[in-house]
């Protein structure tokens, strides 16, 4: 199927994605104090890529998205969208209505008093009078995008009469109807029931791959980020702290912040004893360990072991070599049980699929898969 963003474009056109450099955004709060929301943000999203902005509440993700959309004017920096300069050195060059971007908002923000076709037509009917397409052209574009998104049969339906998946298609059709090649998503799935969310996520990813638009997607949900992204950008206090593939971010975090925020890990302080090729020797409270790690690390670092990379057995029956420990707490969490185990001076979080290894006070033997561990640079 041809991508909707090509509806009004030459299919041979090379599209340029989004480029942000040196972006800085300072707000003034109610007492006129400065709030720095973004600092020195550089971002390159190639055309057709799915980029997820990930980070805790207040880290600046929405502000970055809104600057790209033109809903905020940055204090400094440059933004190029689809090859067009939108902001140059902090000066707005393209107003929001002239930027080739569509937006999909939280819970889709569709108009309940309009039917599907009217919702999708909305962006074409709100620009300056002279710039709006004629009615017949609006109808043609809406029909075309509804056909492409396979919801043409729903054109007359009210929004309240649609399933979650159908609403998502309407929101995407509305974002793409003006021929935009870039779609910005502001936590669209965050208010949606967990089970439905998984299906909608899969459908969204399939549509993005099929139609080839550039996606920039804000979330604080790491699972959503890992599943959807080609590139994840992790923000903290207005700065980008790591950019990489989902595999980079999950398996090879480069700071305590990223290791802590993505996945559930034990982070254990260590002193670097040796470094060879891609392995690091670390002295830790567990003794000496040799595990994978990045080059140029030290003199101190953190041993990262995922909770699910540990094994556990009762002390009296264990045939394996490991550290002796005592269970402090045990929580059944469905697919696995979480044990908090005291090993010497450390408390280690362990996820095991068996619940019967003992409750608080039980003696256990435990260990982790050294090849699955990772050394994280200290600080940050
Ligand atoms: N209009 C504004 N005026 C003053 N401060 C603002 C304004 N908008 C955002 N901020 C501040 O900028 C910082 C970044 O906010 P932003 O909404 O971008 O974070 P976020 O990562 O999207 O958070 P959340 O996930 O909670 O939406 C926060 O400290 C926030 O309080």
From TrEMBL:
Domain ABC transporter per the UniProt entry, residue ranges: 18-262
Top-rank taxon, per record: Bacteria
SMART domains recorded: AAA
GO MF assignments: ATP binding
Pfam families: ABC_tran
InterPro entries hit by this protein: AAA+_ATPase, ABC_SmlMolc_Importer, ABC_transporter-like_ATP-bd, ABC_transporter-like_CS, ABC_transpr_FbpC, Mo/tungstate-bd_C_term_dom, P-loop_NTPase
Protein name: ABC transporter ATP-binding protein
Keyword terms of this UniProt record: ATP-binding, Cell membrane, Ion transport, Iron, Iron transport, Membrane, Nucleotide-binding, Transport
Organism of origin: Dactylosporangium maewongense
